[in-house]
Each structure stands twice: as C-alpha cells, then as structure tokens.
Write a structure and sequence with these properties.
The protein is of the alpha/beta class and 410 residues long. It has a domain of 218 residues: Spore Coat Polysaccharide Biosynthesis Protein SpsA, Chain A, CATH 3.90.550. Helix content is 54%, strand content 13%. It has 13 helices and 8 strands. The chain has an 8-stranded mixed sheet with strand order 3-2-1-4-7-6-8-5, sandwiched between helices. Helix 6 crosses helix 11, helix 9 packs across helix 10 and helix 9 crosses helix 13. 36% of the residues are buried.
Length: 410
C-alpha cells in the first residue's frame, strides 16, 4: 500500500465519520428538529448595518415592520455606513412614517459590517439585540420563535435561524439555494451537541449584556458573525439554532460575485482559527469539537486538491517520458493492458462515499421540503455535488494567498 492509498483511505474514513456523526445526532433528535421553546414578547432593538443598499433596505424594513411582534416593543436602528447611494434617504422616508425607526449615519465608511453594528448596539435601548442584513427579510414569526431560547437559559448568548436563499433566478443562485438548505439542517444538528459556531448576519438575536461584556463585534475580522460566537463560547456562553425560524437572504447572482463572497468567508474563517488556535482541545466544545471540526471542514479540500495536482503531474510526466522513449525506440506507445478497468477496494469505497454523500443531500432536501423548501431539480443537485463543491479548494487557495499578502477587504 502506497502513501497515496493511505491518504485515500483517510479521506474515506473522514467522509464516513462525518456522515455517521450527523446520522447519530439526527435519529435521536428527529422529532425535535423544528421545535423551539415558547417565548413571550419582550422589547427588542433591531440593528441593521447598511452600505449602498437603496434597492433592498426598503423591503428589509417592510419585513421587520410586518413581524408578528408588538410594534411598541420594537425599535429598528439603521446604521448607514456612509453610503454613496440613496440608502439614507430611503431610511429617512420610513423613519418619517414610523416612530420606531431610527437612522444613524456613520461619518466615514468603516469597510465592513462590524463597526456600524457596534454603533447600533451602543445606541440601542433594549436588553435584546437582533442584527439583520439590509438585503434580508425574516419571516413574520421568526423573532418570536427565537426569543424563547434567550428567556429559557441565561447562558444562551445568541440565537440563529435558518438562512435561506431569496429569489433564486440564476443557475448560480439555485446552487446556493441547495447549499443554504443543507447548511441550515447541519447547523441544527450541531445545536443538539452545543456546537453552533456561527450566528449569520441575515438575522440573529443576542443578549445585549453578553455582547457588551465580551467586547462587541470585531471590526478586524471578515466573518464577525463567526468570531463573536467563538468569543461567547470561550467565555462560557452558548449559541442556539432555531430551524423553525427563517430569514431569506440575497445571494450572489454571478460566479464572480460568489467567488469574492467566498474569499471573504474563507479569509474570515482562517482569521478565527488563527485567533483562537491556543484554545484547541480547551474551553469545552469550542476547543474539543468546534475548532477541529471547523478547521477540518475549511482545509480538507486543500489536501485533496494537492493530491490531485500531484497525481495529475506525475501521470503527465510519466506519459510524456514514456511517449518520448517509445518514439525513440520505435515501439508501441499504447498497449492493451493500459486500458485496464479492474475494480479495486479504493474505487469501491470512493464510489460508495460519493453516492452516500449525494443520498445524504437528497435526504436533507426531502426532509426540509416538508416544512418550507420547494422541490429541487435533480440535475441541479448533481451539478452541486459534482462541480460546485469541487470549486471550493481553488477558492481556498486564493483566499490564503490574499491573506498572506494582506490584500483583502470586505
């Protein structure tokens, strides 16, 4: 057995382990996937960081005003990060009609979402803080479904919900729609083992005291919604996930937009790992599971890409040398035995793992369809599994290159 075989077996083991882990979590908890603690309305401040969102901020505000929640218990604070379009004017028009909407304009552009969010949190007057994106629209019952987690347990510092794709039109958006459903499902499974590691920006709920105690969002991190949860966990708090609550978020329409977004995600994730690397195997679930799990998920594609490049280079080099020798020696370039398709144990496990992962994806999508997800095209699902996920390692290489050069921004 060569070292290449060992690496393949390692990949197969990891794949089987991850699928088995999620299945072992799912079956004992399948009846509780969409359950949540019944909460009661309490005053909430909703903070929206906004930059050049004149086309979407109106619909975002409309969705927040339509929440099934007592209007007198809500204040909506939009922090405009020195937009260059008419975002501030749109918000002012809403503020003139609704007393619970406030606009704060940052005198300079901060270059990210953390600083305007922190400005809004400091200005908020209520004990619970919801953070929403300017291009996202939560469902009417989302806030009431989420707040019970904070009321039930004082150790819960933040609550996230199912982030789903909004208005998927292009093929790229349809692929992301599948991805978002699978991520929401997997995040709920992690909730059952106290391992929620992110409260995505489209809509999340926090305890204001916790945010102030741990130092608010980090402006230097490109994924501040991951870093804030890791900081909570490091200080003894936990995060929860409500799969029954939904928020619909705009997704990149083109491959180029998607590529830039995922570079930001990968750089921010790597920043989190570097910042909290000393907590590996320490601080409860953060060090024992979340950091290893997150790191492995982020970087495993790089090893596969490196192995693929090595095998391809070796094969091309061998083919070149063999062809060159055959031409000089006037011998046959190809032989019948070169076209051997004999099965091997590695091939068997590789195909088994591939079909298992596709089956798992179908299972998740089918399960989520019972609640709120539409039917997906089979071709789109196969393209997602075969092509879309294969691009991630290349994006990770670009992300690490930019991170090492320090050439990155929001």
């Amino acid at each position: 057995m060569t070292w290449v075989d060992i690496v393949f077996f390692f990949y197969i083991f990891v794949g089987l382990y991850m699928v088995s882990l999620f299945l072992f979590i799912y079956f004992p908890n399948r009846s509780r996937l969409f359950s949540y603690p019944q909460g009661k309305p309490e005053p909430v401040s909703i903070v929206i960081p906004c930059y050049n969102e004149e086309k979407t901020i109106g619909s975002a505000l409309e969705s927040l005003l339509a929440l099934e929640y007592p209007v007198e218990m809500l204040e909506i604070i939009v922090v405009d990060d020195y937009s260059q379009d008419n975002s501030a004017a749109v918000v002012r028009s809403y503020a003139s009609k609704h007393k619970n909407i406030r606009l704060i304009v940052n005198p300079k552009n901060s270059g990210g979402a953390a600083e305007p969010t922190n400005i809004g949190i400091k200005a908020a007057k209520y004990s619970y803080i919801a953070v929403a994106d300017a291009d996202s629209t939560p469902e009417k019952g989302a806030l009431l479904k989420m707040i019970g987690y904070l009321q039930e347990n004082p150790k819960v510092g933040g609550v996230t919900c199912a982030v789903l794709a909004k208005h998927s039109q292009t093929f790229m958006q349809k692929l992301q729609e599948i991805e978002y459903v699978i991520m929401a499902f997997n995040r709920k499974l992690l909730d059952f083992i106290d391992a929620v590691y992110v409260t995505p920006g489209p809509f999340a709920l926090y305890r204001k005291k916790v945010l102030l105690d741990i130092g608010l969002f980090d402006p230097g991190n490109l994924t501040q919604d991951i870093e804030i949860v890791w900081r909570m966990l490091a200080q003894g708090y936990i995060a929860r996930m409500c799969l029954a609550a939904r928020v619909y978020s705009s997704t990149p329409r083109s491959f180029r937009q998607w590529w830039r977004q995922r570079i930001r995600w990968n750089i921010g994730g790597t920043q989190c790992i570097l910042k909290y690397k000393k907590m590996l195997f320490r601080r409860g679930m953060l060090g024992a599971f979340i950091i290893p799990f997150f790191s492995f998920s982020l970087f495993i594609g790089l090893f596969g890409l490196g192995l693929f490049v090595y095998l391809l280079t070796r094969r091309l080099l061998v083919s070149y040398l063999t062809t060159k020798y055959s031409l000089y020696a006037s011998t046959a370039i190809l032989h019948l035995e070169d076209f051997s398709f004999s099965p091997s144990l590695l091939n068997f496990f590789g195909f088994f793992l591939f079909f298992l992962s596709i089956g798992f994806s179908f299972f998740i999508l089918r399960l989520m369809q019972r609640s709120h997800i539409r039917n997906f095209n089979i071709f789109t699902i196969l393209f997602y599994s075969l092509v879309y996920l294969s691009v991630y390692p290349f994006n990770m290489v670009t992300s690490l290159y930019k991170l090492m050069r320090g050439k990155y921004s929001w």
